[in-house]
Specification:
Blueprint (H helix, E strand, L loop, with lengths): L6 E5 L4 H12 L3 E6 L2 H11 L2 E4 L5 H15 L4 E4 L10 E2 L2 E2 L2 H26 L11 E6 L3 H4 L5 H21 L4 E8 L5 H4 L3 H9 L10 H13 L7 E4 L9
Parallel strand pairs: 1-2, 1-4, 2-3, 4-7, 7-8, 8-9
Antiparallel strand pairs: 5-6
Helix pairs in contact: 1-2, 1-9, 3-4, 4-6
Length: 253
């Protein structure tokens, strides 16, 4: 898909991977709607790139429906959806204070997995009614998993389950939406310099970077956005999860 002139929605676009992707899309000529639960961060990125900011709780049906409708009013129906919204809470199944908090587990699943599906279903429904572009393509949906989907560490049961669900959803979604000319892909980042990670000490960050075989550094939002842009342009990429991790494999803890 040629990005220029297309309407795009980026969830979690107020920071980290989402913000980097929003910038790359705007630089390529897309009309970008920045969706985030943090209205101030969303506005900051949207103002920077000439897009629009929309407050959105991706786990809420009504909130997402409203945001997608407002994005369409401003830019036209989205042909590009990038799901970057997510949270990463840690907790052992059996910890010092007893069993894992069930509400916390549910919240991680709701935001990461259900939130990704929520936006996918809404954007796919509206995009399915659009006129096809080259290769009979109507839209591209890219979600964000994690290497924790494949080699999750101790304390990551909830996070790994949510990201594993995104990975597992990719192929059946691509198969189902193929009749509409809608591609579905997932990116599974490794250790990236997101705001959550950058809040750790310099020593910890350097230790994590050294664990990446090559390149031995933290991934950046620009690395993620670069892969997003390639997926958008390469029509044969469909129904797959791509690890973006410098060949790292996570240890048990």
């Amino acid at each position: 898909m040629k990005t220029e002139g297309q309407a795009a929605i980026v969830t979690g676009g107020g920071s980290g991977l989402g913000a980097g992707t929003a910038r790359a899309l705007a630089a390529a000529g897309a009309k970008v709607a920045v969706l985030d639960i943090n209205a101030e961060q969303a506005k900051s990125v949207a103002d920077e790139i000439g897009g629009i900011a929309l407050t959105c709780d991706v786990a809420s049906g009504s909130s997402a429906e409203e945001a997608v409708a407002k994005a369409a009013e401003a830019h036209g129906e989205a042909r590009i959806l990038i799901n970057c919204a997510g949270i990463a809470n840690a907790g052992r199944i059996v910890g010092r204070e007893g069993p894992h908090d069930l509400e916390l587990f549910s919240r991680v699943i709701n935001v990461n997995l259900i939130g990704s599906f929520n936006l996918m279903r809404l954007v796919a429904d509206r995009a399915s009614k659009l006129d096809p572009l080259d290769d009979n393509e109507r839209a591209v949906i890219i979600s964000t998993a994690s290497v924790a989907a494949f080699d999750g560490q101790i304390g990551q049961a909830a996070y790994s389950a949510s990201k594993g669900g995104i990975h597992s959803m990719t192929l059946p979604a691509a198969r189902e939406l193929a009749r509409f000319g809608i591609r579905v892909m997932t990116i599974a980042p490794g250790i990236f310099g997101t705001p959550m990670l950058m809040g750790m000490t310099q020593e910890i960050r350097e230790s994590l970077a050294a664990a990446v075989p090559f390149p031995s550094r933290l991934g950046t939002p620009e690395d993620y956005a670069s892969l997003v842009m390639h997926i958008l342009e390469n029509t044969m990429l469909n129904g797959e999860t791509i690890r973006l991790d410098g060949s790292i494999r996570l240890a048990p803890k």
